[in-house]
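Team,

Forwarding the record for the chain on the shared tracking sheet. I've put the sequence and predicted structure together so nobody has to dig through attachments.
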Amino acid sequence: MKTTIIFIMCCSFFLSCVHNSNEAENDSTAASYALPYPVGKAYLCLQGFNSPYSHYGTFSYSVDFQMSTGTIVTAARAGRVVYIVENNSDNDPTPGHENVVIVMHEDSTYARYAHLTTNGALVERNQLVAPGDTVGLSGNSGSGYIPHLHFDVTKTFTGRSDQTIPFDFKNTKPHLPGLERGVIYEALGREITTLVNEYQQPGKYSVQFNVETHRMRLFFKDRYVSTKNIWTIHPVLLSKQEDSLSTHNHLHRQILLCRA
């Protein structure tokens, strides 16, 4: 009888741990993350979750994207910049010498954008960023084999060895959790007409979109409500887009994530 009770108690404890683990994982993947580069761009996934090369242990839930030095890196989620290192050389392969920008989200998780180029942080500490805002330029600082961007999410902010947690990118093609090594992933946006149709409600809300300024004006019963800056891969805008940092900053953020 005593043995049976002990067995039942052990089973209950095990099931409780499994439930809590799954619940924590679901919580961390529920947030919406965008790929950390502009809509319309596509990059090769060098490593996904639980890769034997270097994504194991505390780095289990990390993703590496192959990017040439100087490639624009954008915020995957809204938050506040809490930490910046940008003085390390791209020619320094020492582990721990990675240039990095760390952004804290509203749920107190942290996104790390690592291996940025020297002086490649294009944000300031305490700056607020929205999804799609430029945060830096990719590079090859610290441990690594070729220029690339390392992205991960943690629940703590104590150092390089913080445990990473699962997350998921929403604005790309269907994929395995953590993306798949050797696959190219394009950052997808939504057509302007899709967004307009979502906001437009006859007799209530109306929308005006200005192609020249890339702004959408929202009206409620003919009363002006707000203006939204958007950036998208709409063909009309593609013809106006230049692949430069200044243009990207001017065109602002991904249409996928500009809902109020």
